[in-house]
């Protein structure tokens, strides 16, 4: 290969020799190319020599600045082929596609938990750092609450200041995060960006999508520290934890009986009101609990799972079999 200047030839030779002539003065890393070396140095120094002439942002290299300028131009050449949402940068499209595919390529080497973004993994890794002070180094000067990342503290401070910089153009509602505004806007657009890979269902909200996926996979990532029982979402774990704490905040207004969960209170109140909202579509018999309706539906089925070991008679429900056994 021919070069106009001998200097370029020497740089090219490092491809063949493996020579890494650029040594970082801050850490042990070495580099073959000056451009990679200069960019790496800026990770240490924080220098951003490429300013945007349309806003106050500055960047560590010219390619990052070029991509950023698409934001001001309104140029969005990268289009999702699932929901047609467009992006100014290919990296944003790649991250968005993980919503549809469910891909979580960034895996924690300590606990195996996976993430859609490298930044989320970096924040998560802080939780494994030993020492309480290092786990949440960003502390609120107003209330003392601490956070893993500076962005968490920044968003939290808006709770104190009341700042809501992200405003919906449709209804005027404002939010403290742009991501919350994007989620809210689905109320107006009706877009359901989360497609289940196992069935035809689609979802507006990521939390509903993730919970639904666990119906297919059986994953129960939220584990009770007291008894080891696991749950599909944090709200189920929170409600379960009240059983261990003895907390019963939901009291019946008729008889005063208290419950740890609102669902249990609602079921109990039907004993006072006589409400039986779960009705059989075949015989119109109604029930106070959905579980009782499910049991009843078996009486209409020819499928009998419970067999008596003494006489061979089969029953649709275990309770019927147990009644038979009591007579023997």
UniProtKB/TrEMBL annotation:
Residues 22-49, 50-77, 78-105, 106-133, 138-165, 166-193, 194-221, 222-249, 250-277, 278-305 form the C2H2-type domain. It holds the Pfam family zf-H2C2_2. It comes from the Eukaryota. It is found in: Nucleus. One of its GO terms (cellular component) is nucleus. InterPro entries: C2H2-ZF_Transcription_Reg, Znf_C2H2_sf, Znf_C2H2_type. The keyword Amino-acid biosynthesis does not apply. GO terms for molecular function: DNA-binding transcription factor activity, RNA polymerase II-specific; RNA polymerase II transcription regulatory region sequence-specific DNA binding; zinc ion binding. Its main location: nucleus. Keywords: DNA-binding, Metal-binding, Nucleus, Repeat, Transcription, Transcription regulation, Zinc, Zinc-finger. Transmembrane segments: none annotated. Belongs to the krueppel C2H2-type zinc-finger protein family. This is C2H2-type domain-containing protein. It comes from Cyprinus carpio (Common carp).
